[in-house]
Description:
Radius of gyration: 19 Å
Number of helices: 9
Number of strands: 0
Helix content: 55-70%
Order of helices and strands: HHHHHHHHH
Amino acid sequence: MTGTTAHLILAMAVFLVIHIVPSSALRGRLVVMMGQGGYLAFYSILSLAGIVWVVMAFNAAEFSGLLWYQPYIMNHVAALLILLGFILFIGGQTQPNPASVGQSVAAGDDPARGFMRITRHPFLVSVVLWATAHMLVRGDYNALIFFGGFLVLAAAGTLLIDAKRRKADPDGWARYSAVTSIIPFLAILQGRNRLVVSELGWWRLLLAVVVFIGFLHLHPIIMGVDPLP
C-alpha cells in the first residue's frame, strides 16, 4: 500500500487521531499512568512520528488525478495568504496569548493586545492559511487529503482550545472572547476591538517578510517545487 493514496489517507487518519488524545478522557488516564512529564514526552514523540509518517506518505503517493485547475492569479493569492500566515505565526509566538498553555487572561480593561486583537489563535490560523494557500494551487486528491487534514486539525483546534479555556476560567474567557475572534480581523470589523499597529512591533512584521522571502527561495531546494509565480 506504500506509495498510494490509501496509504496517505491512513497516515493522515492516524495523525488526526493522535491529536484528538489531548482533548479526550484518554489524556487523563495516560497522565495518571505516566505522570505529566512522561505523558508530554510520550505525546511529543508520538506526534513527531505521526507528522513524519504523513509527510513521507504524501511525498511517496503516486499522482491521484486533479480535482480542479487553478487560475494563474491563485499563485499570487496563495503567496499573500502565506505571508499573512508568517506574520500571524511570528506575532503569535512572540507575544503573550491567553489561549496558550500555561497563560491566562490578563486582568484589566484590555485583555487582548497586539496580534490577539487580530485573532485569538494566531498560530492555528497561520496553519489554516498555509493549508488553504496550498490547496488553492494544488488541485489533486493527495494535496486535498494532506493539506485538508492540517486545515481541519487547526480549525478544530481553535474550537477545542476555546472550550477548554472557557471551562477553566469562565469569567476571564468570557471577557477575552468578547473582544476577540477566531477569524482574523472579525472582532475589529465588528467594532468589538481595534487595530493598534504600534502593539504589533515593526521588527515582527519585518522578520515575517524576511522569513517569507527566504522561504520562497528555499522552497525549490527543500520541497522540489518553485512557488514563485
